[in-house]
Amino acid sequence: MALEDFMGEDDSTDDSSDSGNTSTPRSDVGDEEGKDEHYDTDADMEFYGSGNADIGKNPLERRGAMSNFTPSDLVKEKDGDITIDEDNIKFYAPMFTILTAEQKYESGEHRQLKSTLDAPKPSWNGRIVSCIGSMGIKLGKLNKEVVMFNTGSHSKKKAMQGVKDIMGDGVDGNDTIYVNFFGDAMFMRDLAQANHELRTDQLVDLEEIGSRVVRKNMIKQSIKD
């Protein structure tokens, strides 16, 4: 969903107490093209956007913009997959970066994360991420912490090996590397709602957000037997 589509939505029900109850769990998800056999793309709908959500016990009930969208709806409009052969902490975050030797992603694209690991699959497997943008930068100008975050190691040796795996052995500081920015589409949407609704005075309520949004997205394993 591009920004122009978002602007066309009616957000007049954002503050309504029952506006999230218009969504119903989908029963045809198993037949959808592109569904990973180890990932239940509509597992969240048991809690989010369904008519029987218990807000006192379960995570945040979706309402307002995109509240009627399921992960399966986003799968239908994806522009391709991102195949990943290892688990990495960055994929559990609402936003992350991927380094590439050439510009291969475009702003506005929706991609589906696909893990090649054997079961159990990581919980980010099957999620739809939005490409926020892509920028080229000389490798020598790239911050060390960005390289460490991308390779998933604070070891200089391992971090540099990760860069060589992307760029090749003959890489030097003048070579251009591309930093591609992605965000988990539904995770970003949910954090925006949490920022609006879960507040104490002028501050966001981190305890509430931690238990009802962040922890569920980052820790829960969505494995289908």
Name the descriptors.
single chain, 225 residues, alpha+beta, Archaeosine Trna-guanine Transglycosylase, Chain: A, domain 4, two-stranded antiparallel sheet, 7 strands, 18% strand
Structure description:
- By secondary structure, the protein is of the alpha+beta class.
- It has a domain at 80-183: Roll (Archaeosine Trna-guanine Transglycosylase, Chain: A, domain 4), CATH 2.30.130.
- It is 26% helix and 18% strand.
- The chain is built from six helices and seven strands.
- The strands form two sheets. Strands 1-3-4-5-2 form a five-stranded mixed beta sheet. Strands 6-7 form a two-stranded antiparallel sheet.
- Strand 6 and strand 7 (203-204) form a beta hairpin.
- Helix 3 (144-151) packs across helix 4.
- The longest helix has 14 residues, at 206-219.
- Mean pLDDT is 78; it is low at 15-51 and 220-225.
DSSP summary: helix tally: 6
- The amount of beta strand, in percent, is 15-25%
Global mean pLDDT: 78
Highest-level CATH class of the domain at 80-183? Mainly Beta
Helix content: 25-40%
Terminal CA distance: 31 Å
Give the overall shape.
globular
Evaluate the radius of gyration. Answer: 19 Å
CATH topology of the domain at 80-183, what is it called?
Archaeosine Trna-guanine Transglycosylase, Chain: A, domain 4
Which blocks of ≥5 consecutive residues have pLDDT under 50? 15-51, 220-225
- Describe the strand arrangement of the main beta sheet, using strand numbers: 1-3-4-5-2
| Sheet/helix structural class | alpha+beta
Count of extended strands: 7
Oligomer: single chain
- Largest sheet data: 5 strands, mixed
CATH architecture of the domain at 80-183: Roll
